[in-house]
Amino acid sequence: MRTLLVEDDRLLGEGVADGLSQAGFEVEHCMSGELARAALTAAPHALVVLDLGLPGMSGLELLRWLRGQQNPTPVLILTARDTLADKVQGLDLGADDYLVKPFELAELVARARALLRRSEGGSSPLLVHGRLELDTVAHRARFEAREVPLTGREFAILLELLRNTGKIMSRGELEERLYGWGQEIESNAVEVHIHHLRRKFWRGLIRTVRGVGYTIRREDA
Ligand code: CA
Q1: Each residue of 20-42: pLDDT tens digit?
Q2: Packing angle, helices 59-68 and 84-92, rounded to 10
Q3: How far is the CA of 92 from the centre of ligand 1 (A)?
Q4: 160 CA to middle of ligand 1, Å?
Q5: What pTM does this model have?
Q6: Can you tell me the distance from the alpha carbon of 47 to that of 29, in angstroms, rounded to the nearest whole number?
Q7: How far away, in angstroms, is 13 Cα from ligand 1 center?
Q8: Could you tell me the distance, in angstroms and rounded to a whole number, from the CA of residue 53 to the centre of ligand 1?
Q9: Exposure of 184 by Cβ count < 10 A (0-12 exposed, 13-18 middle, 19+ buried)?
Q10: How far is the CA of 35 from the centre of ligand 1 (A)?
Q11: How far apart are CA 10 and CA 15, in angstroms?
Q12: In sequence order, what are the beta bridge partners of 134?
């Protein structure tokens, strides 16, 4: 998730860059519109976080240039100027969202994630395994286009196994995801949930690898 941050305030820029990095974004920080234009020309980015008030080339000018290049990269505007005119102009020029300074870092990260999800197609990312679909945001499962009710723990186990398709997950790893540290675990809890999942979907969905753990295999879809 290569992200271009354009912010001329060094302290604020470093804070935002740190926050985004900790949230898993790979951040390139530019302090001027001209440098940002060069960075955007040099390599594709998944997201641009753009301050409007920049020395030299302004944020709005950079945005106009970017859209003029038919570049569809999602843009999140940061602005100190809490005026309707700036926001409207930014959105008219093709920005996807905006935040008014001062803002909470957590909100910036949440909005950045939402923009990435939208640009990747759909606000509910689906994990698909053959006729099985798992909506990882709405926490719902469908099989052959029918809704299948799952308990929270069944959903968590299925999600973990699907995210690791092809890998073997030990019972201990699955228990950790389910219960976290220090919680009392019934000794056969994972087996029971897996038994229910097989009945709700199909028997070969989850393989037992004797003495090692469980796995979902792509070829079993
Ligand atoms: Ca600024």
Answers
A1: 999 888 899 999 999 999 999 98
A2: 20
A3: 20
A4: 42
A5: 0.56
A6: 12
A7: 9
A8: 4
A9: exposed
A10: 14
A11: 9
A12: 127, 141
From ligand 1's centre to the CA of 77, what distance in Å? 11
Structure-token pair, residue 42: 């040099």
Q: pLDDT tens digits, residue range 139-198?
A: 789 998 899 999 888 988 998 899 889 999 999 888 877 765 455 667 788 999 999 999
Predicted pLDDT at 183: 58
Task: Tell me whether strands 97-100 and 126-129 are parallel, antiparallel or unpaired.
Answer: unpaired
Residue 123 pLDDT > 50, yes or no? Answer: no
Q: Ligand 1: distance of its center to the CA of 40 in Å?
A: 19
CA of 51 to the centre of ligand 1 (A): 6
